[in-house]
Amino acid sequence: MKQTSVAVIHCRIRGYPEECVAEARPAGELLLVHDSSLSADRLEALREKHPDIRTILAPEDADRAQVLNLAVKNSSGENLLLLQSDTILAPDTLRMLEQQLSEDERLGAVGANLTFENGITRRSRRPFPILLRELLDVRPFVRGLLKPIRRIPAVPPVAAPRKWMVDSVAPNCVLLRRAALEQAGEFADGFDFQFEMTDWCWRAKKRGFLTCVLIGARAYVLTPQQIGPLPPAMRLVHLHSLYRLARRNKGAVFCTLLRGARVFRALMLLVISAIGFVLTLMKSRTARRELRAAVDILKWHASGCPKPDHDPLAESDFRWEILG
Predict the structure, then answer these.
(1) Which of 41, 46, 134, 175 is the most buried if burial means most Cβ atoms within 10 Å?
(2) Number of domains the chain is built from
(3) Which pLDDT value is given to residue 159?
């Protein structure tokens, strides 16, 4: 088995690096990339319990991509496991990820299924933007105007495939091949909502490296996942990163068409939420929120889509539906 470096990322999140490091149990080197929020006492306790751990202090103003690049530059293994400090590996998950990566040379990244603290399980994936899907997807309207229903995730059938090929994975728990890191380059900064990983997976795919989620591999996120649509201010942050992703990988023309598709969806949301607002005699909070969100999105596009001032990481309990 090829040597794997494990990099635990503890930056701008409410994490638990002690539990995260204890469950990782790497066969190779172990790194902890952290910010100033991790106290000296906790760092000393980690070093006493894990003498082989290397700690790297990230710059105060570093974003997620810069922190991930620190982990890549300071690791030496042929594979690199990126693990956020609020995520704990299930037993045998690291071995399963390593085995999958070694069996298929086409793979550049392998992710695990994520189970959040409130019991919600998500496959760690995000699709690349496609214009037709952007125009025809009605799920945002259903999620925005109807009350979310909590569902217990169904157990996959025995005949389910061992791996699921995806466009990109979330950086909570992902094993990366060193050759893919060298060819695809560094993680690009300036993204929010974990789009820096989506951007990297897109560039890796252009160089012949694929991405998959291993069905049997699991990781547990020690924070709950919020059910429902994003708040209006965060939708603009999400759209800004989405457009930057499209512009970097598909060009200005595709980005312009994508903006047009999103404006069309905002207009549809405006009409639907306005009808719902009137039919409920202006008492529906959901319709009122979606109506305000549609107006904000249209105003933002009319002003040229500037970078929003809102920081999604400023809220400590932030865990929205960002994976799919």
Answers:
(1) 175
(2) 1
(3) 42
